[in-house]
Amino acid sequence: MWLLIIFCLLIGLLIGFSIPVLFPITLAKYMSIGVLAALDSVFGGIRAYMEDGFDSTIFISGFIVNTVLAAGLAYLGDRLGLELYLAAVIVFGVRIFQNLGIIRRYLLKKY
Amino acid sequence: MRSKGAQISIALVCMILGIMLAVQFRTTASIEATQTDERLTELTQKVQTLTEEREALAEEVLTLRSKIANFRQTDQALADLQEEVTEAHMAAGLIPVEGPGIVLTLNDSPLNLQVGENANAYIIHDRDLLLIVNELKASGAEAISINGKRLTAMSEIRCAGTTILVNWDKIAPPFEIKVVGNPDMLESGLLMRGGYLEQLKVLGMQVQLQKMESVEIPAYTGSFKFTYGMPIDYEEKAE
To answer: Which of B20, B22, B81, B100 minimizes the number of CB atoms within 10 Å of its CB?
Structure first.
């Protein structure tokens, strides 16, 4: 399981570094929020997997919707002159740490 | 539900996340690189153009001066005028001058700043230099330079942030003031009781005064530009 995650992440990084695609500079800020949301989804998924409550549909839809929503929220905030991306950063940051904590506890219990 | 499907979807999402992370990383890196690059090239270009301009102007000054020198050499009939021109050039600071004089070196105070004291009291200011130069002029100085910058009639001594501008060039401590004139007169002018040099010494500034048999003072390297002033023929006026 862990090997699989790390392996796939490495493959993704390799692909990402080798393809010549770049985000448009104007969208880079929103994409960074999207990346944060994606990171949160993945940790949430791993946690659910360890709790045996994993659902592929929820996981994948959450991954896509969270990413798009976070980026969209940051974009909307910029248009409104409101720093809405801070909300996304705080929420996802807190959740990432929570999920990491739960995952850690599971691992400690397991081994 | 630890099925194959779950593992596949996690694997897939991880891969996508990896791609996103990598692309985002590269995007950020490229944005930073282009920003610093732009600034760098802009500044480099500015420096280059300014250096070229400066060199061109310096060359122009040299050619014009050699022209003047040529005129002076070839035209024997104007011998009297030559002398006048030389004197005028000396007064204007356009030719280097050599003669007896003094070398005065000033540096900031080496004393440690005590709590609550103003650091300004321990450094040499533009007004210090101004007052000393004024004193030197009053003592019969014929030519003065500060850190190799010849003082002309139009020279400024002006504070510019942390440095001092003379002839629009920045100078910094230690200040070496070279003066051509009667060394004894200059010295006594500076060392006058209650004079400005004494005040500087009280504040702890490092002051060094040397009488010299021969002081060499460089020429003014810039050029004069008269936009508003026009010469008036004073002989005509006198009539």
So the answer is: B81
Q: How many residues make up chain A in this entry?
A: 111
> Chain B residues within 8 A (CB-CB) of chain A?
1-2, 5-7, 9-28, 30-31
Using a 10 angstrom Cβ sphere, with 0-12 exposed, 13-18 middle and 19 or more buried, the burial of residue B124 is: buried
B50 and B160, same domain (yes or no) = no
Cα–Cα–Cα angle for B106, B110, B112, rounded to 5 degrees:
150
pTM: 0.46
Give the span between the Cα atoms of B154 and B163, in whole angstroms: 19
Q: How many CB atoms lie within 10 A of CB A2?
A: 8
The pair of structure tokens assigned to A81 is 């002159």
Contact A16 B22 (CB under 8 A): yes
Domain of B18, in residue numbers = 8-70
Q: Which of B216, B210, B213, B192 is nearest to B106 (CA)?
A: B210
- Enumerate the β-bridge partners of residue B160: B163
Cα B214 to the center of its chain, rounded Å: 25
Q: What is the pLDDT of residues B205-236, one digit of tens each?
A: 888 888 889 999 998 888 878 888 888 876 65
CB B213 within 8 A of CB B100: yes
In which domain, by residue range, is A93 found?
28-110
Q: How many domains does chain A have?
A: 1
- Let me know whether B50 and B144 are in one domain: no
Give the ipTM of the model, two decimals please: 0.82
Rounded Cα distance, B40 and B34, in Å: 10
Name chain A contacts of B10, Cβ cutoff 8 Å.
4-5, 8, 42, 45-46, 49, 59
Q: Which residue has the higher pLDDT, B194 or B101?
A: B101
Interface residue A49 vs chain B (CB under 8 A): yes
Residue with tokens 């050699």: B66
Say how far apart CA B180 and CA B95 lie, in whole Å. Answer: 13
The values of phi and psi at residue B145, to 5°, are -135, 145
Judge: A55–B1 Cβ closer than 8 Å, yes or no: yes
Would residue A70 count as lying in a domain? yes
